[in-house]
Amino acid sequence: MDNVNRLRVGHFAPDFALKNSDGEEVCLSDFREKKGVLIFFCPGRKNPLCLDWLDSVNRLHHEISAKEIEILWLTPDERWFIRRIEEEKKLRFRILKIEDEVRNGLWLPPLIQQYGVEATESGRGTPYPAVFLVDRTGIVRYRKVYTGAADKPNPEELVCELDNLT
Description:
Elements: E1 17-19, E2 25-27, E3 36-41, H1 48-59, H2 61-65, E4 69-75, H3 79-89, E5 94-97, E6 102-103, E7 106-107, H4 110-114, E8 118-119, E9 126-127, E10 130-134, E11 140-145, H5 155-165
Parallel strand pairs: 3-4, 4-5
Antiparallel strand pairs: 1-2, 3-10, 6-7, 8-9, 10-11
C-alpha cells in the first residue's frame, strides 16, 4: 500500500495505450484537449464490488457523457470476458485490457504501478479498485483508491465531482 499516493491530484496523468475487446488501441492522450476522462481500475471479474460499480456507472453514462467526459474501464481480465460483460450488461463505455508484465515472478503491469494502485499484498499485483478523473489538459482532478473492504465507491458522488471539472 506504499504506492497508493504515488499519483495525486494536480499531477499529470501517465498516458497509456490499451486494447479494447475488439483489439483496437485506445490511448489516454487521444482525448487531450477534447474531453475529460473518468478512469476506473478494476481488479477483475472476481470482484463483486466492481461488477456492481459497472452497473451504476452504466446507468449514469448519459449524465456523465453529457459533461463531455469519456469513461474508460481498465481491468486485467481477458478480452473474451470483457466482450461477454460488454454484451451482457449492454455497456455504453469502453473496457480496456491492462496488459501483463512479469517481473521477478510477479505479475505487475507498469500502468498499475504508474497510477499507484497495485494491491501487491494479494501476491498477484492486481489493482485496487480506483477512480481517476483527468481533465482535458491531462491533469488528475480527482482520485480515490479503495484499499479496504469497507470502502465502497459512490458513482453519484463522482457526478458531483464532474461538475467541478466542467
